[in-house]
């Protein structure tokens, strides 16, 4: 069984997908963390974000591991824990540029499909239902107002001890939406057979309940 959860930045994909996976006993795969990990390594190596060949070479050299622990998912690159540094504003500001390169997305898609091949998974991202797992049995597209998405991002950064400005976050999210939606390779868009869930004003528990209910309906129809 494969569940694809797509949506723009700050829509709550990662938190919701992780909770759904825990409740259903599935493997959670955060594809956004994979692109963030590459972006972080590229920044540290002073690799130009526009150099597609160099970024692909970096990715080919990376041993990328997503490890699910009792405290949540940890992200490792070449055995180094990069879970926290990949969430900084600097990485956030560059990840859309990195993710837009076809050679990077090609390799990432290969890795993501391999992760999903042998397990029931909940995978979240921006092109999961349309490109990475087009055969997923359940597809969800999460969205929320820019104001709410910025507020969620602000709280997340504050919890990590990172200062941020709400207005700047709104501008950054709007720009990232534009980049993600307009890129030529696997742009952000809702799959035709995806269920649209607007999470504005909804708590995480409510969103998770709705997705689990949709999953149970899907399983019932296939029984």
From TrEMBL:
Database matches in Gene3D superfamilies: P-loop containing nucleotide triphosphate hydrolases
Subcellular location: Cytoplasm
EC number: 2.7.4.25
Gene Ontology CC terms, in alphabetical order: cytosol
Compositional bias ranges of the Basic and acidic residues kind: 176-192
The entry's keywords: ATP-binding, Cytoplasm, Kinase, Nucleotide-binding, Transferase
Region Disordered: start-end pairs: 176-195
Residues annotated for ATP binding in this entry: 7-15
Catalytic activity: dCMP + ATP = dCDP + ADP; CMP + ATP = CDP + ADP
One Pfam match: Cytidylate_kin
Gene Ontology MF: a single term: dCMP kinase activity
GO biological process, one term: nucleobase-containing small molecule interconversion
Similarity section: Belongs to the cytidylate kinase family. Type 1 subfamily.
PANTHER family in the cross-refs: CYTIDYLATE KINASE, CYTIDYLATE KINASE/PANTOATE-BETA-ALANINE LIGASE
NCBIfam families: cmk
Protein name: Cytidylate kinase
């Amino acid at each position: 069984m494969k569940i694809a959860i797509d949506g723009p930045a700050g829509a709550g994909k990662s938190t919701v997908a992780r909770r759904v996976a825990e409740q259903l006993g599935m493997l959670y795969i955060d594809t956004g963390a994979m692109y963030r990990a590459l972006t972080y390594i590229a920044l540290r190596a002073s690799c130009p974000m526009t150099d597609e060949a160099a970024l692909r070479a970096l990715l080919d050299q990376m041993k990328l591991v997503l490890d699910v622990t009792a405290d949540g998912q940890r992200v490792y690159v070449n055995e180094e824990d990069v879970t926290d540094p990949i969430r900084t504003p600097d990485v956030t500001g560059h990840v859309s540029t990195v993710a837009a390169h076809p050679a990077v997305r090609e390799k990432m898609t290969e890795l993501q499909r391999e992760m999903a091949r042998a397990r029931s998974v909940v995978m979240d991202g921006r092109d999961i239902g349309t490109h990475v797992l087009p055969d997923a049995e359940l597809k969800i597209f999460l969205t929320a107002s820019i104001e709410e998405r910025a507020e969620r991002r602000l709280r997340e950064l504050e919890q990590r001890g990172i200062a941020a400005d709400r207005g700047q976050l709104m501008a950054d999210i709007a720009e990232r939406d534009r980049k993600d939606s307009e890129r030529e390779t696997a742009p952000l868009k809702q799959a035709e057979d995806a269920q649209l869930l607007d999470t504005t004003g909804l708590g995480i528990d409510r969103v998770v309940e709705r997705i689990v209910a949709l999953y149970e309906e899907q399983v019932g129809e296939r029984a």
